[in-house]
Amino acid sequence: MRGLLEFPQIVFREDDLLESVLWCLAWLERHKIEGGWPEVAGINDASIHQTTLAVLALSRLRDSLLDFGSEYEVHGSTTVGSVLERVRELIAHGVRGYLYHRRRDGSWGWRTYVDTASSPSKTSLCLLATSAAIDGNSDQHSSINGDSHFEVGGVTSGVESLQLREVIAGATQWLLRNHVRWETLIEDDKDVQGTSWNHMAYALCVHAALEGGANPYDSRLKSAWSYMGSLWDAESKIWAERGVSGRNPTIRASYYTVCAYEQARVRLSDISMEEQSGVARSARSNNVDDGVKVTSVRAEGNEKIVVETVTGDRYECVATGKLLKLIQLLLSDPRKPHSRQQLAREMAISVNSVPKYVQRLNDRITDASDGRVVQLIRSKESPEGRGYQILD
Fold it and tell me: Which pLDDT belongs to residue 66?
């Protein structure tokens, strides 16, 4: 389900693909147990690994339904609203399940109901799942938002009520405090039956810490970034993992590493220039070009954006649908930051999807200008929180 929904615009146009996603949803409904989902269907022992993966996939389905639901045709008695309710109920079920195993220090152990050492990988998975579970469409009574309170703990400590944003902050701080434990770690997951399953913790933990709000240039991430860089295999053109037999280029290592780098790219686009004075200095020291200054932006017709720069150059790119709607909203007051919540409401998408559309539009302008215009849309703080604007 999670893999298919990397391309939701295709899934919602192809009945066979959509039916596959709905089959996955029904399978998760059938096989849920108290506390989440098991490592192997049929056993009655909840797995943090499988429960977090289920929440990540279900959250992506929820966001896809919000983004593309208007294009979804009704199948018999199945409607977008009824599918969303089923998805949201399962997300809440999974979140409640793994939060029961959270520890007071903000971490999770590698297995449920067993007093083990804290696991960097399981803590990262829970952080990522919790962040994904937060629903931007907070008008719905069944939505989960960052202020939602959940009962947390119960296995190794007393139960407390925390907001999900507090859970995310606690896990992020635990990862950063304990960076020495995981910055070169490949973590064996003994909870997975029948195979040797390893998490590339050195990349997974960076990915999670960035999702939790860490700065990519945080000194506590420096060794992990350096380690990932050392694993690039120039001959194979992918990343390697180190084992007893030496360096072995693998799809697994590449996947984890690309996820970390991709999250760093997204995180940097989220950090306002005021927040990242240190990042800006570091970027300049590495000769990173901030791009030519933009003096004018306008939408022409129903599918074209025109950008003019201080050098007198003019660039055009195609933007239709929600991308066009995004630029029109920002142009309604180009020197004012527009909050993510406002943009999500006006575009009829989830809050979590707003940065994706911003990045997509920025990429189109950058491509159209041969790299001369960098980050047309910039992250700025608004009265409602994080937002975006075009012109300074």
Answer: 84
The answer to whether residue 15 is domain-embedded is: yes
70: phi then psi, degrees, rounded to nearest 5: -65, -20
Q: Residues 275, 308: one domain? A: no
Residue pair 294/307 in contact (Cβ under 8 Å)? The answer is yes
Give the relative orientation of helices 80-99 and 48-68 as an angle to the nearest 10 degrees: 150
CA dihedral 201, 207, 212, 216 (to 10 degrees): 110
Give residue-wise pLDDT tens across range 302-336.
788 899 888 888 899 888 888 888 989 998 988 88
**Residue at 48: amino acid letter:** I
Alpha carbon 167 to chain centroid, angstroms: 16
Using the 3D structure, point to which of 250, 283, 316 is the last residue of a domain.
283
Q: Which parts of the chain register pLDDT below 50?
A: 74, 272-274, 276-290
Q: What is the C-alpha separation between 270 and 91, in angstroms, rounded?
A: 26
Domain count, the chain: 2
> Does residue 166 sit within a domain?
yes
State which residues form the domain around 183: 4-283
Whether 194 and 271 map to the same domain: the answer is yes
Residue 289 lies in a domain: no
The pTM of this model reads: 0.72
Looking at residue 140, its pLDDT comes to 53
CB within 8 Å of 289: residues ≥ 6 apart: 374
